[in-house]
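User: Predict the structure for this protein chain, please.
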Amino acid sequence: MSNEDFTVTVRKFLKQLGVTGHQVIEDELKKAVKNGKITSGSKISISAEITINDLDVTHKIDGSLVAPE
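Assistant: Here is the predicted structure, written as structure tokens:
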């Protein structure tokens, strides 16, 4: 596999991760606000983790979001 092909496969994975992750985050936060579990404008802690099992590698990021209206 060429370096360019490899880069394309990584970018496709990250695009899928970003699109589906965004959908899940947005849907769940809107549902939580609607159900009264959290209030609009509240700060929500969030983390994401990517694991490469075959290489025994894990990358985790932590952050925060503000709940939607």
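Residues 3-66 form one domain.
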